[in-house]
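Dear support,

Our group has been running a series of protein-ligand predictions, and this particular one with s-citryldethia Coenzyme A is the one our PI (initials K.S.) wants archived with full inputs and outputs. We had some confusion internally about which version of the output was final, so please treat the block below as the authoritative record. The input we submitted was:
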Amino acid sequence: MAKESLTIIDNRTGKQYEIAIENGAIRAADLRQIKNGSDDFGLMSYDPAFTNTASCKSRITFIDGEKGILRYRGYPIEELAEHSNYLETAYLIVKGELPDRKHFEMWEHNIKVHTMVHENIKKFMEGFRYDAHPMGMLLGTVGALSTFYPDAANIHDLESRRLQTRRLIGKMPTLAAWAYRHTRGLPYIYPNNELSYTGNFLSMLFRMTESNYKPNPVLERALDVLFILHADHEQNCSTNAMRSVGSSQADPYSATAAAIAALYGPLHGGANEAVVRMLERIGSVKNVPEAVKKFKAGEGRLMGFGHRVYKNYDPRAKILKKMAYEVFEVTGANPLIEIAQELERIALQDDYFVSRKLYPNVDFYSGIIYQAMGFPTEMFPVLFAIPRTSGWLSQWAEMVRDPEQKIARPRQIFVGEKLRAWTPIEKRPVPVNREDAVDTSI
Ligand code: SDX
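Confirmed final output from the archive:
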């Protein structure tokens, strides 16, 4: 049996090193012993955007990008989407096991008693412009929650972590719905805990004058499945933000606000909004070939395609593509789906996309479904943030409890100026427009 190690010869010194391989990885810190002289800091690994760097060990979500596999705590996403519901899946992600009936009912109660928010949040929300992006409002209000719950700073206290987890999972739909109502100039609707987690969210969003809002069961179930699909996804950009901010021992509300900020970007959770805007710009199936030509020429990206991990079809996209038609049964078809399917058909036959292993990801179809369900485009990333809260908090708690983790502080490779002496302003040359300057607007 080959030894689980690397033998490295440093050709600069002729020295040989044994580096252990553990879980298919080497510890970057083990490279530090490789020095080229006594004053050498030692070797580092250089990995911009962490394309090949494991930042942690985790038990929560498993992804096999080549095979298009996604499992939460070992359970295939396809089975959870078919048989589970979001709150049960959130329990699984946070607690590690599926609940029995008694524990599920306790969990559901413990979440529902936290759906209300402090009345001051209304005043806080009123401070946003009428046309504020709801994701910016969510980011602000979640960050503000840290000032309402100073006890959340006790991150090493298990009961405190549990309480903040229940509070955030319970309150996210309320904050999201109120952000939407604010942009529409509509009164806020208080939580109705008689309804399901997702049904209550639909009620807070869309209830008007009816005294007893009843969500459409097909749409309620579709949104619940969408929430299941978005609940966690191992070390994605926003989870990395959650873990990094949390590693300084900031409270979980501040860390979640940072995760929301990361998710806001169009390359991440903002992609579902960008997909729909892209499809609307393309406008019709006959314009698709021209659009694909532009993407291949590097004029913009085929949003909703490609993934850092999946080099095969995102299993979530498969489920959403099928579910879209169940939603359309109720809402009427969203004509954008024809453009999306033609884009997919052409791209999956085109070497530019195939050679780069670019397949539809979770965002390619989710926005089309949200739009058919009556959500405005700017709400789409908010609909991603709500379910991902259980994943973020679970990953955060795993980081807090991990004895190998400490404050995240990467190193750098310095490529700037060597030592220089300050000179009086009169003696300085006209500054030049340096190409490598971060701001060349001299
Ligand atoms: C999510 O990480 C997660 O798990 C995220 C997520 C989750 O659940 O948390 O799955 C959710 O964020 C899904 C991804 C949503 N984003 C988009 O749909 C935006 C469009 N896709 C991309 O921008 C891109 O594919 C990323 C950001 C998703 C992945 O980027 P990578 O891995 O850094 O790949 P890259 O940018 O280095 O691209 C590799 C090549 C490049 O071409 P070359 O330089 O080799 O010529 O592929 C090209 C890119 O130009 N490319 C695309 C493309 N995505 C990559 N070309 C056209 N259209 C695209 N969508």
